[in-house]
Amino acid sequence: METREFIRSLPKAELHLHIEGTLEPEMLVELARRNRVEIPFRSVEEVRAAYEFTELQDFLDIYFQGMNVLREAEDFEALTLAYMDRAAADGIVHVEIFFDPQGHTQRGIPFAVATNGILSGLAEGGRRHGISSRLILCFLRHLSEEDGFATFREAEPWFADGRIIGVGLDSTERGNPPAKFAGLFQAAHDAGLKLVAHAGEEGSAANVRDAVDILKLDRIDHGNAALDDPALVERLAAARMALTVCPLSNVKLCVVPDIAAHPLKRMLDAGLCATVNSDDPSYFGGYLGDNFMAVTEALGLTRAGLVTLARNSIEGSFLDAAQKAPHLARLDAVATSLRGA
């Protein structure tokens, strides 16, 4: 079995995926035309050229500009369903996706329009492909905690019935430390929500440690910089706290100089529960299968190592034990066959 097909055959969860970051140039141009939104691009090729950047802020500029074409619930549904189709092609069995409601409400799109459109796409993708899903609301850390609380209050009906199962924190780490959102995450903790946050992408190991301690995280998004603090690594490994690592994203944003320098294998060797994810795949050059292939080839990962990454993704998900069991059993069978071979 070829490597890509082997990767596709493994039951995997994607735990770090911004749905707005799956907006492909073709869909951006089509939605701009359909919704009569002015964009500074005359063709799909010009959009694709604009997706070339090397700094996080440059990416965020085009990211927020691109999402402006999302106006109606059916736009969000189409975007989400297109991702679910790609997830199925990569052998993904479960997704836990992020969305940025503040990026929509600030431009006049009602919270319910974006949220219900995404949920419809997840539901249809589940029916079509048998993929389970969870939705996580991310707060934009360059905005104020007060703004985050306003969004939190608006989301409460979706929290109450489990349509949104957790909250996260994204956008730039610089100048926006975890402590800025301590009160907001305490409220989310008190509401029984799952808690995740971006940390250690452009921030330091201290940012990772503060995010875990101050925000009471259940999972760390990125977490690369944790490797700079051996005591923190030992602590995270002992707790089996999952890190949702995004290799191609890290290369695109110059977090690492190239894929051969990526720290994923060092994370695994240190006993960390590292997982592979695609982050914003339309902007960063590849979906989950592409990320798996990139690290396999550059870091010399064995098939047993790929099984470990898939297992980490299932174990690090917010599925309950009964929901994880069949996926883990499939991975156990693959691991046994590899040992036999």
3D architecture notes:
An 8-stranded parallel beta sheet has the order 1-2-3-4-5-6-7-8, with helices on both faces. The protein contains 17 helices and 8 strands. 54% of the residues lie in helices and 13% in strands. By secondary structure, the protein is of the alpha/beta class. The protein has a single domain, classed as Metal-dependent hydrolases (TIM Barrel). Helix 2 (25-35) packs across helix 3 (44-50) and helix 16 (303-315) runs antiparallel to helix 17. The model has no long low-confidence stretch (mean pLDDT 95).
List keywords for this structure.
alpha/beta, 341 residues, single chain, eight-stranded parallel sheet, globular, TIM Barrel
Give the strand line-up of the largest sheet.
1-2-3-4-5-6-7-8
Rg: 19 Å
CATH class: Alpha Beta
Global structural class = alpha/beta
Segments where pLDDT lies below 50 for 5+ residues? none
Total number of helices: 17
How much helicity do the residues have? Answer: 40-55%
Annotated CATH homologous superfamily: Metal-dependent hydrolases
Question: What is the succession of H and E elements?
Answer: HEHHHHEHHEHEHEHEHEHHEHHHH
Give a short account of the largest sheet: 8 strands, parallel
Distance between the termini: 13 Å
Q: What is the total tally of β strands?
A: 8
Work out the strand percent: 5-15%
